[in-house]
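Q: Could you fold this chain for me?
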Amino acid sequence: MAQFIKAISAADDAAAFPLSNLQSVMCKADQVVVLTFAPGSLGEGQAASVDLITLAITADKESVVIDAICNALAEDIKGRGVFTVCDDVNSVFAHPNILSCTITKDA
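A: Sure. Below is the predicted structure, expressed as structure tokens.
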């Protein structure tokens, strides 16, 4: 099973978070799915200590994308150490309905 979830939103903006820190995968708004990781970069016990990967997705495909991410992490057929959910630089996405991403540390 993957040990890290990775996102790359620009040439100088990339992050990999431990799968064990994944707190939720949720629809935040229309065309937005957010992966929340806790504790965040500030560490345990800090009030604002969550890190986020925010995915821009195709309209009305939130549930499809959430299912695809969760199923891929659960199955992980290849036994990868790193699961790339979004790579804007190389146009690699965990699902075709993921369009881009942003990374927010200590949201």
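A (continued): The chain has one helix and eight strands.
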